[in-house]
UniProtKB/TrEMBL annotation:
Keywords: ATP-binding, Cytoplasm, Magnesium, Manganese, Metal-binding, mRNA processing, Nucleotide-binding, Transferase. This is Poly(A) RNA polymerase GLD2. Pfam families: MTPAP-like_central, PAP_assoc. GO terms for biological process: mRNA processing; regulation of gene expression; RNA 3'-end processing. Residues 422-475 form the PAP-associated domain. It is found in: Cytoplasm. One of its GO terms (cellular component) is cytoplasm. The lineage of its organism: Eukaryota, Metazoa, Chordata, Craniata, Vertebrata. It catalyses: RNA(n) + ATP = RNA(n)-3'-adenine ribonucleotide + diphosphate. Transmembrane segments: none annotated. GO terms for molecular function: ATP binding; metal ion binding; poly(A) RNA polymerase activity.
Length: 518
């Protein structure tokens, strides 16, 4: 028996009582709570909060379970560290209650306090009690998997079963396996000519390393623990080029904070949530988070720099489509061995010629990736299919978020009869958009694997480049709204195609020094 615990408390069956206010996002559901007599008061904050036990969380774990260390870092990735967090409730945006917590992360040290204990009936409730309030948002939802994995260096715990209470805002369960492990062993294509070899050289020099990704993941997992002090049931996802297979060593990190499964109003709710996150970064994390700025764009973000990894991050709220398209693109990336080298070289080429910056009215990287995929789909002998048409169940917009990462592991490689070399594909890509694609009447669609007639909606009018987002059907190239910028993009495609065609030397359109600095 643990010292300091009264027998009558320790012997209460775990299945009857859930101390969810003490551990609102913990896998230790069902454990008996501590009597107020044995709890330390806390005056760190002025508002009365639910309090933590005298014994550390780890002491309880060690006493009640036989634990073992997590084998390796990848097994813990994107699962989050579910620390014991006191919680309170506030309203934001449209008045929906959101559970929050302002308590510091508990590191096993005793907290100083002079605050009065919160009444026991508030701190402890049985899930099956008729008096239990189920109207508070962000209540804990038991996960379906058998174990929950925490951050690197922590322990694995068996999940105790508890009663399920429907809640207004359901949490997003963690991924069951490491989603950034490569879906399959993929061998780079053999270069049979000098231009193809140059393309491979650029890819090998500039591609994102595993160590680069692990730095971003470590930052993500630490930030998730901190953000869960404000939104205990939230999940923080690494998205974008860092995870979709097309990242470079200089790629920024993109993060998506999911606070609830339902959409949020980006103008009101998302901005308010991000303002809380930014304030938390400034007040608690100034030691390793630099320059957190709230950018009130159409999809608002908090931009910041991680001092440890020196990586720039953009954090948005509930941009769910970004999570889905990350794993769609990741599946394409590993479907055929020529896809990743070609995409990376196109991104470097566009960046060098200053047509890869949406903030300046040119193409964003996502649009460039979709343009390459579309080109490979529309060849006389396609190199890529439409994954959404061939495997609709794996890329459904209604698929639960904690399952979307499984698609890259379940889709078999695509065997194309087209054996074109990388150099020829790069030339063909430039030629297609310089001379063949009809910008004025066509829309690029990876979802349909073909060029479609332009829609007649408001979003598509007066837009010079139309690239369909595969899930929500919006225009990913809407930033190109000035004719001058559009003409500059078209001109660069045409000039680069002529130059590369005549010289067959990648340095003629992408100088070695422009990318080797990475």
């Amino acid at each position: 028996m643990l010292p300091g615990l009264r027998p009558n408390w320790y012997q209460i069956p775990c299945s009857l009582i859930v101390n969810k206010s003490m551990f609102p996002n913990s896998s230790n559901l069902g454990r008996p709570p501590f009597h107020p007599k044995y709890q330390q008061p806390n005056n760190f904050f002025k508002l009365p909060l639910n309090l933590s036990p005298t014994l550390s969380h780890q002491q309880i774990i060690d006493a009640q379970f036989s634990c073992q260390n997590v084998d390796s870092l990848p097994r813990t990735l994107l699962s989050g560290n579910l620390s014991p967090i006191p919680a309170q409730s506030l309203s934001y945006g449209n008045g929906s209650p959101i559970q929050t917590s302002t308590s510091p992360v508990f590191r096993g040290r005793k907290r100083l306090s002079n605050e009065q204990n919160v009444p026991l009936d508030i701190k402890r409730q049985r899930f099956h009690s008729p008096h239990h309030e189920s109207t508070v948002a962000n209540q804990t939802v038991p996960l379906s998997d058998e174990r929950r994995y925490s951050a690197p260096g922590s322990v694995t715990l068996p999940l105790l079963h508890s009663y399920y209470v429907p809640d207004l805002v359901r949490s997003v369960p963690p991924f069951r396996e490491a989603p950034f492990s490569e879906p399959r062993e993929i061998t780079l294509p053999v270069a049979k000519d000098e231009l193809s070899q140059q393309v491979l050289n650029v890819f090998q020099v500039c591609q994102q390393r595993t160590c680069d990704l692990k730095k971003k993941e470590l930052c993500r997992s630490q930030l998730q623990r901190e953000i869960q002090l404000i939104f205990p049931q939230s999940r923080l996802f690494l998205v974008g080029s860092s995870l979709n297979g097309f990242g470079t060593r200089s790629s920024d990190g993109d993060l998506c904070l999911v606070v609830k499964e339902e959409p949020v109003n980006q103008k009101t709710e998302a901005r308010y949530i991000l303002s809380l996150v930014q304030k938390h970064f400034c007040t608690r994390l100034s030691g390793y988070i630099e320059r957190p700025q709230l950018i009130p764009a159409k999809v608002p973000i908090v931009k910041f720099r991680d001092k440890v990894s020196c990586v720039e991050f953009d954090l948005n709220v509930n941009n769910i489509v970004g999570i889905r398209n990350t794993f769609l693109l990741r599946t394409y990336a590993y479907l055929e061995s020529r896809v990743r080298p070609l995409v990376l070289v196109v991104k470097k080429w566009a960046s060098h010629h200053e047509i890869n910056d949406a903030s300046r009215g040119t193409l964003n990287s996502y649009s460039l990736v979709l343009m390459v995929l579309h080109y490979l789909q529309t060849l006389p002998e396609p190199i890529l299919p439409s994954l959404q048409k061939n495997y609709p169940e794996s890329f459904s917009s209604s698929m639960q978020l904690h399952l979307v990462h499984q698609a890259p592991f379940t889709i078999p490689p695509y065997l194309s009869k087209n054996r074109s070399a990388l150099g020829d594909l790069l030339l063909g890509f430039l030629k297609y958009y310089a001379t063949e694609f009809d910008w004025s009447s066509q829309m690029i669609s990876v979802r349909e694997a073909k060029a479609l007639p332009r829609p007649d909606g408001v979003e598509w009018r007066n837009k010079f480049i139309c690239v369909e987002e595969p899930f929500d059907g919006t225009n990913t190239a809407r930033a190109v709204h000035e004719k001058q910028k559009f003409d500059m993009i078209k001109d660069e495609f045409l000039k680069s195609w002529h130059r590369l065609k005549s010289k067959r030397d990648l340095n003629s359109i992408l100088p070695f020094k422009s990318y080797y600095a990475e």
